[in-house]
Amino acid sequence: MTEHQASEHVHEVLPPILELQSITKRFDNVLALHDVSMQINPGEVHCLLGDNGAGKSTLIKIFSGVHQQTSGNMCLEGASISFANPREARDRGIATVHQGTGVLPLMSVARNFFVGSEPTRGKGVLRRMDMAEARRVSLEQIQALGIRRVEDADQLVGTLSGGERQALAISRALYFGARVLILDEPTAALGVREAQTVLKLIRRVRHRGVAVVLVTHNAYHALAVGDRFTILIHGEAADSFVQGERTREEVLNLMAGGEELEDLQLELEEIDAEFTPSA
Amino acid sequence: MIGSQPVSPRPIGGRHRLRRMIYRPEFGALLAALVVYGFFAWGTRGNGFVTLNGTASWMNSTAELGILAVPVALLLIGGEFDLSIGAMVGMTSIILAAGTTHYELPIGISILIAVLVGAAVGLINGFTTVKTGLPSFIVTLGMMMAILGTSLGLARTLVGSPIVSLNTEGFFESLFASRWRQFNVSILWWFAVAALATWVLARTRTGNWILATGGDTQAAREAGVPTDRVKIGLFVAVSLGAVLVGVIQALEFNSGDVSRGTAFIFNTIIASVIGGVLLRGGYGSAVGAVLGATTFGVVSVGIFYTGWETDWAQLFLGVLLFAAVLANSFFRKLALSR
Q: Number of helices (H) and strands (E), helices first, in chain B?
């Protein structure tokens, strides 16, 4: 079975793994999210688009247990659920990889991969880290995401590129049981090539049947790998659609708030006029 | 299928092994130790520095520094300082001297009391640091003052002097203060502490937690590392190291002295830093601290064999510290840029 067929199959059959129903989040008097509903499906990349301050971070913090909604309902595999803290969310298979990724640059790839969950062998005072296992598994998992340049598990993570560090963080989350992977602006700090590396590994993760939530304000990156899209504007789901239903221009317009972009065009023309020598 | 491609680790050849050695945190310290030893061995040839007695002389001096530098290195790697160790060395010697001389307790009981006090001091340092979020530099500075004051007060009240004499024989004397020729048994303690620390840091999951906690406490905590427990444990280990040195010195010199340990505060940090431990945490090794202490010991003792004014030893150590830190920083950048 090819990877493409596999994904089509996943699309049709599986119910949403995570579902938000009319989520509202209020901080004191500030309404951060208002009546947001969305579905996160296994084997799909769900892009969460929006300008800074649109509520993307608040939304993923509700997913990952950092915040709790003021009203509305969250369902994990059909059952209503609420996470008291990030640990609970992680234990239920919801992992967040942030831009900084939480890796330790002065530790080796193998040591980073297993921080907090080290494999051990031996008993009692002779209990020790199973370094051979740590090396083997970490390389295997990172390379399975298509990152071939990482071939020495003893090299310091500080020697890896931004994309490779993302791969380390993502492969670690998957290895420890993530079924929903939330990626917070994974391409924001990266160069063009590195961003492509990350987009490719997102595609691989999707083909493994993992549900990916991709938070970004880069419409190009979103349209390249997304299956389903939700655009947030001022805390509300302004639009939601599936791949192919909107053109890039429409998406860019929506994200910028439509009219604002037209206004900008007019203002730019006014500036041009100032610099045009009058006849 | 995904994940089924064979993983081929880089073949490890001779050249690769050498490169890997260069990338280790203690490589600069190894060079420093060899260069400094070579310098004094050659520069003082004929004066007895390389004889058995000369070797015993610098090893004895190094051992006590090394016993304490090793746990201090682990604490630095874990991202914290402890300035109270010097005072703890002094207090231990006072507890032993006052306990055996004034209260006529068996020496074993006095040692046990010192161990308990040391553990309590470590726990207080640790808990205060992780619970208040204050810099350990400040917390342990306060602790240092508190311990110095207490030891001084105790010694004066009980014996009327900050220096208390002590006489022991038998098992504990041979355990902590016996010699073979000119070599003190403290050298064996040093090796034992270094071996234990190397095992913990390089081989156990606790070691991984220490590196992670010092590298980025927040990231380590998010990954499930009990960072508070790691730090508290390290403070206790350092404090117990100070007790061990205090016991050895009290039995060796047959006296307790409140201010005896003061030199350890900075010398252990210097030894660690020469040994490639990163002062802001997250990087370093126990072997590095051993090599750093060795370099320090060779310089402080070697200077006697040159016939120069020993006043110059500090200058030499200052320059050495600076050079070693530059070298370590160079090798660390090399390891990060391959």
A: 14, 4
Walk along chain B (338 residues) in steps of 10 and give the mean pLDDT of each run: 44 64 83 88 81 87 94 96 94 90 87 96 96 94 94 85 75 82 89 95 94 92 90 97 94 85 90 90 92 91 81 81 84 79
Query: For chain A, where are the alpha helices, taking DSSP H only?
Result: 3-13, 56-63, 86-91, 109-113, 131-143, 162-175, 192-207, 219-225, 248-256, 259-275
pLDDT for position A14: 66
Lowest pLDDT segment from A85-89, A223-227, A260-264: A260-264
A 149-178: CB under 8 A from B = 151-156, 158-159
8 Å CB contact between A144 and A158 = no
Specify the pTM.
Answer: 0.85
Q: Quote the pLDDT of residue B123.
A: 97
For A162-195, the DSSP string reads: HHHHHHHHHHHHHHTT-SEEEEESTTTT--HHHH
B81 to chain A nearest CA, in Å? Answer: 20
Q: Which residue of B has its CA nearest to A120?
A: B205
Q: Is A198 on the interface with B (CB under 8 A)?
A: no
A128 touches chain B (CB under 8 A): yes
Q: pLDDT of A208-242, one tens digit each?
A: 999 999 998 888 899 999 999 998 888 888 888 88
Q: In what order do the strands lie in the sheet with A94-97?
A: A94-97, A180-184, A211-216, A45-50, A228-233, A236-242
Contact B278 A106 (CB under 8 A): yes
| CB atoms B3 and A117 under 8 Å | no
Q: Which positions in chain B have a beta carbon within 8 angstroms of at least one beta carbon in chain A? A: 2-3, 5, 7-10, 20, 23, 199, 203-205, 207-209, 211-212, 215-216, 218-220, 222-225, 278, 282-283, 332, 335-338
> Residue A151 is nearest to which of B10, B212, B215, comparing CB atoms?
B10
Among the listed residues A100, A64, A47, A62, the one whose alpha carbon sits nearest the alpha carbon of residue A217: A47
pLDDT at A191 over 90: no
For residue A175, what pLDDT band results from cuts at 50, 70 and 90? very high
Using DSSP bridges, classify how beta strands A45-50 and A228-233 pair: parallel, antiparallel or unpaired: parallel
- Residue B152: partners with Cβ closer than 8 Å, 6 or more residues away: B162, B258
Contact of A109 with A154, CB cutoff 8 Å: yes
Mean local confidence (pLDDT), A169-184: 91
A129 vs B contacts (CB less than 8 Å): 203-205, 207-208
The average pLDDT across A65-89 equals 88
Partners of residue A79 on adjacent β-strands: A76
Domains for chain A: give ranges and CATH numbers: 3-101+180-269 (3.40.50.300)
d(CA A170, CA A160): 14
